[in-house]
Amino acid sequence: MTAIRVLLVDDEPPARRKLRRFLLADPDFEVVGEAGTAIDAKAAIDRLRPDLVFLDVQMPGPDGFFVADGRTPPFLVFITAHEQFAVKAFEVQALDYLLKPVDRARFDQVLVRVKRRLRQDLPVVTAAPREFLARLLIDTGDRSFFLAPEKIARVQAERNYLAIHSSGEVHRVRGTLDAFAAQLDPGRFLRINRSDLVNVDAIAEMRPWFHGESIVLMKDGTELRWTRRFRPGRPGVEPGDPESIA
Asked: What's the CATH code of the domain at 31?
């Protein structure tokens, strides 16, 4: 089986050496190059055509998201010392992200996820784009109207109903959060706990909380909890996978 070709991008040589050492332990991966800046990384991607890039976020000059801007494959795994970049990683549809200092056990989980995605799910990448909900019909009893998903700030489950928050108003529709989330673009909407689905564009900031959880502060001032179960990196859950948002 052909090895998965990897490019390592980090402005710190010791960090690249650590990743290279971890990868050497798995014969399914081959490190084909390294880069210390985002500009060099783009040139290396064009030259080497790697399958996967481990990409530092904060580097001199343009940051790692410069590499992801308008990208085509390779797939990306972001590496960062700051949790707040997780939301943006979702927006560019990264396979995963790692927090520094990189833990070996967590790194091995990422490798398992990468192999499954590249070798089993790769045909999905070239398939026809999946269609998501274009508009939602809201019926208030005395009037009905269509609501574009991008206008939704967050959705909260309330037993057999959903409270849809949009532009300071709350609209209630019958349904489950699982079914509703499956109709939305996972690059825009993020399931953060059992009851809440949020539009990443409506997030103001995130703050670390206890036991690996985070407080998500919405632009409307609402504070929500991002629980560990719904954090990326939980075994069997990937950013963008249906289970991570449903």
From this structure: 3.40.50.2300
**Gyration radius (Cα) of the chain, Å:** 19
The reply to whether 46 falls in a domain is yes
pLDDT at 229 over 50: yes
Residue 122 included in any domain = yes
Selection from 119, 57, 116 nearest residue 91 by Cα: 57
Domain housing 148: 136-245
Token output for 70: 């308008």
Residue 204: CA atoms inside 13 Å, Cβ hemisphere, count? 9
Overall pTM > 0.70: no
Strand partners, 146: 137
The pLDDT tens digits of the residues spanning 165-212 come to 999 999 998 889 988 988 888 878 989 999 999 999 999 998 888 877
